């Protein structure tokens, strides 16, 4: 079993007073993690599955008397895939406010509907966590650094979903996962009228990983208007398929400020979408794979460590670029990403003179492991 960072973090927040919210993509191990926590704590628990129509019907707008009767024998109540249960926020609010000494945990694979449903009712009544595909730090802690480093090329091609790491039929599993199951919540939300358009958009985004993305160009490529492109990308973000990285721009005369880059939460999903599982030595997109992997690992690391940092990329109007920038309380750090450790990189004087970064790093496959 892979050691997950959030195991101890969530366990420490079980206080029978506030609800615990655990979000993240499908199949990253949220349900398994909660089950392991309940086993260790030896608490009687009730698991309500939002994907089960009978559970959804029972828990849609129940009155308080019914809620009390349903949860009476249990110390811990888990609403799994809670985004599919109507008004789940109000239901949980009633449980928390009644001070019944019940620990409520909500898991969700999509912020579609769930964020709006839980934010207002549970203000001041919740702890929030996000779980991702297996982080490099989790892999290293489970297998040791010596055994994890030889797995790096596999991670770049097949990604970091727990089942993909642990099982042999990686391509078949990824093909199934990258299909409609991954964005099941988008399709069922009614926000997507034509699923084939979503597939074309995902393919276009997959080919542009590491490059600046133009909504106008995507519109022409996919065959939908710009507003629909923006809406679909927003839905994909809320379902933890992709995320945006915006440009750092505080010098309008010299820097671009209106473009963005879009990355996938998992390399394997990206490769499955374009049906390319070729090994690293046979690929011409290793730069994009490395960039997607490292920046996503940074996102996981910062989230799990709860570091108050903002992330950017940077490009000047003269086409000087920096792949990744972090801004924290102590200043700015800049990162150039090179898969090949023999490749050098220079940081633009336009950037360094203006922003005065605290540190600059050239990250390659030989030194990345102590940054994430």
Report a brief summary of the structure:
The chain is an alpha/beta fold and 372 residues long. The chain has 18 helices and 12 strands.
Describe this structure in words.
With 372 residues, the chain is α/β, with parallel strands linked by helices. It contains 18 helices and twelve strands.
Topology of this structure?
Layout: H1 6-12, E1 19-23, H2 30-41, E2 45-49, H3 53-58, H4 64-71, E3 76-80, H5 88-97, E4 103-108, H6 114-119, E5 126-130, H7 136-143, H8 145-148, H9 152-158, H10 162-166, H11 170-181, H12 184-189, H13 195-207, E6 212-213, H14 215-222, H15 226-238, E7 242-245, E8 260-264, H16 267-273, H17 286-304, E9 310-315, E10 321-328, E11 331-337, H18 349-355, E12 359-363
Parallel strand pairs: 1-4, 1-5, 2-3, 3-4, 11-12
Antiparallel strand pairs: 6-8, 7-8, 9-10, 10-11
Helix pairs in contact: 1-2, 9-16, 11-16, 14-15
Global structural class: alpha/beta
Give a short account of the largest sheet. Answer: 5 strands, parallel
| Helical amount | 40-55%
Strand order of the largest sheet: 2-3-4-1-5
Strand/helix succession: HEHEHHEHEHEHHHHHHHEHHEEHHEEEHE
First-residue to last-residue Cα separation: 21 Å
Rg from C-alpha positions? 22 Å
List descriptors.
372 residues, alpha/beta, Rossmann fold, 18 helices, 12 strands
